[in-house]
Design brief:
It is a single chain. This protein is an all-alpha fold and 213 residues long. It has a domain of 116 residues. Helices cover 75% and strands 0% of the residues. The protein has eight helices and no strands. The termini are far apart.
Length: 213
């Protein structure tokens, strides 16, 4: 039996590569596990807006009411931004074909970015039509994420027969062709909305547009 001697450089390169690959897998797995919590908290806060407004009406001190509203807005919008940032892994084909991720997770991220775009161009808290549009996008995004997450990622190891086939189709690593296509479609939508946001920001100079009277 013959053994091939490894140089120190080869051994070092192999160890560093293994550490980097393991760290990347750990980070992506952590993000995939945290995103459902982000979505649930975000949907809960958005739908709980009426409850927060009722609480604000009960405050006798104006400062307390303003602080509650500011905290609510800050936490809610922070979750939207965090969800978009954490979902960037869905835009990289090499990631989606390696990890077990929801097949339409990229489209869910696009819906979140659409919410940010609406908030950039208007006030969804005072405009009922914009609020309904944000609600629609959040509901659509949650469906895009949770349906393949529950029926695919979570059921992938226990489902059998036709249910197992459906589960495999809903997971990126076991349906790589569709996963890559979804990734590119999501990037295209994101690019269009990003261009719209950039044009709007340049046109307004970073200032809110004056209301038409």
């Amino acid at each position: 039996m013959f053994f091939t001697a490894l140089s120190v450089q080869d051994l070092t390169t192999g160890i560093i590569g293994g550490i980097n690959a393991g760290g990347e897998q750990f980070l992506e797995g952590t993000l995939a596990a945290v995103l459902p919590v982000i979505w649930i908290a975000l949907i809960g806060l958005h739908l709980g807006r009426g409850y927060i407004l009722d609480m604000i009406d009960k405050f006798t001190l104006r400062l307390g009411a303003d602080l509650l509203w500011l905290i609510y807005i800050a936490v809610r919008d922070f979750l939207v931004i965090s969800g978009v940032i954490m979902s960037f892994m869905f835009f990289f084909p090499d990631v989606v074909i390696t990890d077990n991720l929801p097949i339409t997770g990229g489209l869910a991220a696009v819906c979140l970015f659409g919410v940010l775009l609406i908030k950039l161009m208007g006030d969804a808290d005072s405009n009922p039509n914009l609020y309904r549009l944000v609600t629609l996008l959040l509901g659509l995004g949650a469906a895009f994420y949770f349906i393949p997450y529950v029926l695919g990622v979570q059921a992938n190891n226990i489902a059998a027969g036709s249910a197992g086939t459906l589960a495999n189709d809903l997971v990126t690593s076991t349906n790589q062709v569709t996963a890559v296509a979804m990734s590119y479609i999501s990037v295209a939508f994101l690019a269009v909305m990003g261009a719209a946001a950039a044009i709007y920001a340049m046109r307004t100079g970073g200032q809110p547009e004056a209301e038409t009277k």
